[in-house]
Amino acid sequence: MCGICGFVEPSGRRAPESLVRAMADALAHRGPDGDGVWADEAAGVAFGHRRLAIVDLSPLGRQPMESADGRLVLTFNGEIYNYRELRADLEAGGLRLRGQSDTEVLVEACAAWGVGRTVRRLIGIFAFALWDKSVRRLTLVRDHLGVKPLYWGRVGADGRGEGSGAAAGGVMFASELKALRVHPGWSPGLDRGALASYLRFSYVPGPHTIYRGVAKLPPGSMLTWEPGTEPRTERYWDMRAVAGVPPRDLDPASATAELEALLGDAVGRQMVADVPLGAFLSGGVDSSTVAALMQARSGRPVRTFSIGFDVAGYDEAVHAKAVACHLGTDHTELYVGRDHARDVIPRLPDLFDEPFADSSQIPTYLVSEMTRRHVTVALSGDGGDELFAGYHRYFWADAARRRLDRLPRGLRGFAASALSAPPESAWDRGFGLLPGRIRPGRAGERMHKLAALLAASGPDEVYRGLLSHWDPAEIVRGAEEPHGVLWDGSVAGEIPDFLRRMQFLDTVTYLPDDILAKVDRASMAVGLEARVPLLDHRVVEFAALLPASLKVRDGQGKWLLRQVLYRHVPRELVERPKMGFSVPLDGWLRGPLRDWAEDLLDERRLAEDGVLDPGPVRRRWAEHLAGTHDHRDRLWSVLMYQAWRRRWLDRDPDLGVLGEAGPETRPHPTAAAVG
Hints:
Blueprint (H helix, E strand, L loop, with lengths): L1 E7 L7 H10 L8 E7 L4 E7 L13 E2 L5 E9 L2 H10 L9 H12 L1 H5 L4 E9 L4 E6 L8 E5 L14 E5 L2 H5 L10 H10 L12 E3 L4 E5 L6 E4 L3 H5 L8 H19 L6 E4 L4 H12 L6 E7 L7 H11 L2 E7 L1 H6 L4 H5 L8 H12 L4 E3 L4 H5 L3 H15 L2 H10 L4 H6 L14 H12 L4 H9 L4 H4 L14 H5 L3 H11 L1 H15 L4 E3 L5 H8 L14 H8 L18 H6 L3 H7 L2 H5 L6 H13 L5 H17 L23 E2 L2
Parallel strand pairs: 12-18, 13-14, 13-16, 14-15, 16-17
Antiparallel strand pairs: 1-3, 1-9, 2-3, 4-5, 5-6, 6-7, 7-11, 8-9, 8-10, 11-12
Helix pairs in contact: 2-3, 8-24, 8-25, 9-10, 9-25, 13-23, 15-19, 16-18, 18-19, 22-23, 29-30
């Protein structure tokens, strides 16, 4: 893994090499093993790179890298897992490569076969930029599922990144937003619509970012741009098309064998590295499957890592240790004290660049920090819940949909009123809408969602209600929330099965913008490469074709994945209620974090930029402190926005957004769809 950045600004009056070096320096944490820049001052093009050396540690793997014919220049973040096969094909065509890196294979494949044909052959996780000198063309590419990040935006002729589409303007890109902030041609300004979406979901959904004029390149997409034209995007791989294919009729035995073969190949490819390698192990189904398949392919004990908390209900380390002992891995665990965990919180705005409020960001950073002391690469089990239907909310939504259909419309308003009572009594008055075995432990946090479900007009609205924390209209002043795929009514027609549709929606929203963003920022902050074998796009395509009977049985998800795991680990070691990767945030906010939170949630501070309405926030804060409600998720999202604003906006006097009273429009970087 690495950090990449660059820009093409033909009409710029800046020194491209020194500027791109400063941008790359902002990404030093992503690449502690070296740096490199390439610039063509006459063309106004500059690429930067920070290197985390994984394959071919020699200088022959340094970037940016030019093709042998001198036509292409590449800066690349990620790993190509089938680079050896691609290399063999290139050599069969007469090309002789200089080194052993996947970077060289990638740039030479693009030179020999073209970018479009090459990316359709890749197995891996990647984000890269390619400059074609012969036609003066910039190409940006992001991997199938969005494992690796790539931000881009327009640099206008007037020196402001307003996405105006002026022919004289340029394009900039980077692995993280902090590198784009270095470019003087972009003046970052808050996007209230994106903030509204953030407060609903606790992350900013792509392609939006918290800033006007900068976007995330969608997963599975390729953007091309030539000076004097508008950027054009096309999908080389489309999860929507994958999810829309009817399921296959598979018998359980053959499906188990096929899945194990696919996962085994994915894990084996991702174990290739010229540096020490290990795996995160929580003791759950996903990470245990990855660790088991790694150990089955290793001649020596693989390294596994877990962290624990001395707090009841938050410690999975004991389960991870049991799995590790059974598999015979070389296991390391770290029990984290409260002070150590809380010390991470002031760093979060720097790590994530934009507001991000999945509180599992804290243990994810801690396990990455500990793992990096021993290895440079770690395999993770992320993706199993989305692919194999493991989330509780799938069962919540389906149960609520079916039971609400049987509830007379006139009773729904009465039920919603009952649910406004304190959480314990409200749950008792919940009319049995949800089966007991899938009731969440934090009833108070879920009551507002259940009340919202009572007014839902259909299953998709039920699902959106479960995903929502705040109603943005309640808290963000003058903002129009952008409605993406979660509000796209055509999805139901293309993917009529409700379970499959929920899985698809999570895979294109929550997975790249929450889960994968969290793992990328937390791991790369300490120079650790995290690989995700369950998200090999071939595994994703296979999982999408499975019938529901091979995913869900007896009210439990991930049935087929469990069958693979049971071939390696006794079921009694992994069969337990889903715990999640979390910290005791509810108690921390009432105790050791109270003063910090009170400062950020001060009514004057909430109101000072004219964006948030302090009333609803202060009311939830008072209820949380009183112990009558558990508003940890809602409050954490506001706290993370406030902390991010203090770090990135309040200190910049030139933003021109603080104190604005009216709504802000969203001039997104223009990208015309191709085909």
